[in-house]
Amino acid sequence: MGDGSVGRRDGRCGMRPARARAWDRFIVSTAVGALGAAAVLFASEAQADVVTDYVAANARIVCLVLDEYPTVEGIQGVGEAIVEDGLSPTADGEVIARSVIALCPEHLPELHLFVARWNGVQA
Q1: N or C terminus of the chain with fewer C-beta within 10 Å?
Q2: SS3 12
Q3: 101, containing H or E segment
Q4: Residue 119 pLDDT level (bands cut at 50, 70, 90)
C-alpha cells in the first residue's frame, strides 16, 4: 500500500454493495420491530393473566361485597381494595366488570353508574 491508496489491495473500498447493506438494514429493522411487538404482546398477556387469576380467585367476594353495598360507592370501595392488593386501577376496573358480568349481573346498573360518573357523563 505504498502507492498512496487507502483500503484493500484489490482497489475496492471494502464495503458491501448498497443492495446488501439495504437488505441488512431491512433484516435488522424487522427483527427489532418483531421484538418490540413481542414485548408489548407478552406484557399485555401478563396483565391479562393477573386479571384472569384475580377474577378466578375473587369474583365471588366482589359480588358478595356488592350485595352488601349495591351502590357506586360500593364499587369504588371494591376497586380500592383491589388496588391495595397490588393491581392497577385499570386492572381493578376489569376485575369488577368481569366479576359482575359473570356472577352478579344484577349489579350492572351500579357498574354503569360508576363508569358514567368517572367518565364525566350525567346518568
Answers
A1: N
A2: coil
A3: helix 89-103
A4: confident
* Grid-cell match 364499587, residue found: 75
Residue entry with cell 356472577:
103
Q: Percent helix, strand and coil across the chain, each rounded to 5?
A: 75, 0, 25
Residue with cell 505504498: 2
For 69, the grid coordinates are 353495598
- pLDDT tens digit sequence for 31-69: 555 555 555 555 555 556 889 999 999 999 999 999 999
Which sign, positive or negative, has the C-alpha torsion 66, 55, 51, 53? Answer: positive
> How many Cβ atoms from other residues are within 10 Å of residue 111's Cβ?
20
